[in-house]
Design a protein that fits this description.
The protein is α/β, with parallel strands linked by helices and 555 residues long. Helix 15 links the parallel strand 17 and strand 18. Helix 9 runs parallel beside helix 10, helix 15 packs parallel to helix 16 and helix 16 runs parallel beside helix 18. The longest helix is centred in the last third of the chain and has 20 residues. The two termini are 47 Å apart. The structure holds cobalamin and iron/sulfur cluster. Cobalamin binds next to helix 1, helix 2, strand 5, helix 4 and strand 6. The site of iron/sulfur cluster has 11 residues, from loops.
Length: 555
């Protein structure tokens, strides 16, 4: 159905009036693995192995096969108003085939154009060598693409990462004429008309109106077969941007239609996009809607020709509230998963744990625990991850340090939670807090590595110690000398001795020898080996959680 490689020759003589594109790092489908895309947040020089995936893939008519979902939406919205012949999406390597004298607008989407989002900031500064992140290198390559540079078209940049251009002060240098903030459904077409008529002279536009019921379905496949099932969230965490969007569940027939579009065009997987799949038709007080979630996944799983289901995000509290919800959808997901650990099939999703501290949760993300009271957060997390594991889910969890008002006690609470989770199957992603532009905490102070305490370093290294134990298996014994050598020659010089003790523990030196923060599992004063052995799964609901359901209304 499709070809990879290179096709030459213009798509239409004189170019297409509206050309849509994104950087090679964001348009790529990484051999159909969305989680591999996160590697682009690491330094470019260390991630050259990813370049082999960044070639265009084509549909039989010679147009580009994979495009980020948001850009496919923009395409559908513009095609509905201006017609198919006026709009096309292009891989950056192919811009010369699309841009010509007739091109009036080049629309670009980006999530992380300057490498300033959470993962990029954390790991680029932590690694400290290898240069800027792959995301920012590839974005600059796009901006410097000769077909774009030599064109007189108006360049509009949209998507979640536009704030980074303002923060880095590079709008003019990059030749970006308009920064488009917000959603496209209601306002984009009028703006585009004005630009094409030469009636828009500003360098930014903020769209505030929304009406999701008018969103047309995508017309062609998105990378990984991405299909949106919900937009927005409503739990209102202070650091978060998607919560600033109104919550909406896409009707099932529309979702199935988009899955079918992907399959019909040779993309046999679906990547279910949501802030939390259990938000689908969620009830008051964030009580999950089991019949709606069941129907959703049964309908997706029934699409003929679909071979794989990936999930973007899921929350913890809903599965603790109703474990049956997970039990019933998991067989569908496992049947369509190609992920394996030690020969066992598993499925995964990103799950936001953020911190082990109920006090910090109460301050900045109280509603994340709903329908439970946030004071039970560590129990909810332990129980929830146990339930996930029991149903064949090995989640990728994100946790943060450096939030405003975070105390040493809060960091210790996170370390304790990491210890409590260490025998479960999950992937820890420890991150530094970033004040994102649209979030409530947009004005908060950004933390950097120079100001991290030893405990905060420990938070990062302890998470990675567990990752190595869980995922690297026997290879972990080979990794330790690598980390130690890098530390001896580089990280000690870069981050100072505060990093030494946490790193020694990361590579497996006993805490009783190294000292510093001592994990819950092993207090050197009275630590005996049996005390370190934990029950493999916290699959029983502590009775206090059953009483902990909150009755307060939604925010
Ligand atoms: C799905 C997803 C992914 C998928 C991408 C799938 C794909 N290619 O289609 C994967 C897993 C690969 C991914 C990776 C990353 N992601 Co991501 N991702 C999302 C998620 C959950 C949904 C995005 C989506 O498709 N939404 C639905 C569509 C319809 O909305 P949209 O994209 O915003 O598009 C609308 C508007 O923005 C606008 N628009 C979009 N593009 C354009 C272009 C033009 C020209 C115009 C005019 C308008 C316009 O119109 C659209 C329709 O209204 C969002 C969270 C969220 N809800 O936004 C995070 C999110 C966008 N990701 C984010 C980040 C940072 C990343 C990473 C850099 C990793 C990280 N967390 O640090 C990597 C990038 C790696 C890479 N090289 O690709 C952040 C961005 C934060 C920020 N504000 O800076 C978000 C907001 C999550 C978060 N809160 O942290 N991501
Ligand atoms: S639960 Fe997740 S998506 Fe919802 S507001 Fe909090 S961080 Fe954002």
């Amino acid at each position: 159905m499709s070809v990879a490689g290179k096709i030459e020759g213009p798509i239409r003589p004189g170019g297409v009036p509206i050309v849509l594109t994104s950087s090679a790092a964001e348009i790529c489908d990484y051999n159909n693995d969305p989680f591999l895309a996160f590697s682009c947040t690491f330094p470019h020089k260390l991630t050259r192995y990813l370049d082999k995936y960044m070639v265009p893939h084509y549909l039989p008519d010679g147009t580009n096969k994979f495009v980020p979902y948001g850009l496919r939406k923009v395409e559908a919205i513009l095609v509905e108003r201006f017609g198919r012949d006026i709009v096309a999406t292009a891989h950056p390597d192919d811009l010369h085939r699309y841009i010509g004298p007739k091109t009036k607008i080049v629309g670009i989407t980006s999530m992380d154009p300057m490498g300033l989002a959470y993962v990029s900031t954390t790991y680029n500064s932590l690694i400290g060598f290898g240069g800027e992140s792959k995301n920012s290198v590839k974005f600059r390559e796009l901006i410097e693409n000769p077909a774009l540079k030599d064109s007189d078209a108006t360049v509009i940049l949209g998507g979640a990462g536009i704030w980074q251009i303002t923060e880095a002060g590079v709008q003019e240098e990059f030749g970006i004429d308009i920064l488009y903030e917000g959603e496209s459904e209601v306002e984009l077409c009028d703006l585009v008309q004005k630009v094409m008529d030469g009636n828009f002279g500003e360098n930014s536009y903020k769209a505030t109106k929304r009406d999701y019921s008018i969103t047309p379905p995508v017309l062609l496949p998105a990378s990984y077969g991405a299909v949106e099932i919900t937009r927005g969230c409503g739990r209102g965490c202070d650091f978060c941007t998607p919560t600033m969007r109104q919550r909406y569940s896409v009707p099932i027939d529309r979702i199935v239609e988009e899955v079918q579009t992907n399959v019909d065009n040779g993309c046999k997987s679906v990547f279910v996009i949501s802030e939390d799949v259990f938000l689908y038709e969620v009830e008051k007080n964030f009580v999950p809607n089991k019949p709606a979630v069941d129907k959703l996944f049964t309908s997706i799983g029934a699409v003929e020709g679909l071979e794989e289901i990936h999930l973007s995000h899921a929350a913890i509290a809903p599965v603790v509230y109703n474990p049956k919800i997970l039990e019933d959808i998991s067989p569908i997901l496992l049947e369509k998963s190609k992920r394996k650990l030690n020969g066992k099939t598993f499925t995964t999703a990103e799950v936001g744990v953020e911190t082990g501290s109920p006090a910090l949760m109460a301050k900045h993300m109280a509603n994340k625990a709903l329908p439970f009271d946030v004071k039970y957060w560590p129990d909810i997390v332990k129980t929830g991850i146990g339930i996930y594991n029991d149903n064949g889910w090995y989640p990728l969890i994100t946790m943060m340090t450096g939030m405003p008002d975070e105390t040493e006690d809060d960091v210790i609470a996170s370390l304790e939670l990491i210890d409590d989770l260490k025998d479960l199957k999950l992937f820890f992603t420890p991150l530094l807090f970033i004040p994102l532009n649209e979030a409530v905490l947009s004005e908060a102070k950004r933390i950097d590595l120079d100001h991290l305490t030893e405990l905060q370093f420990e938070f990062i290294t302890r998470s990675w110690h567990n990752n190595i134990r869980i995922w690297a298996g026997a290879k972990r014994f080979m990794l330790s000398p690598v980390f130690l050598t890098v530390h001896a020659f580089f990280t000690r010089w870069k981050h100072g001795p505060r990093f030494t003790r946490p790193l020694l523990k990361m590579v497996g030196m006993p805490e009783s020898m190294v000292g510093g923060y001592v994990g819950k599992g092993c207090n050197p004063e009275f630590c005996i080996p049996e005390r370190q052995v934990r029950h493999p799964s916290f699959n029983k609901l502590p009775s206090n959680l059953e009483e902990a359901v909150r009755t307060r209304g939604e925010r």
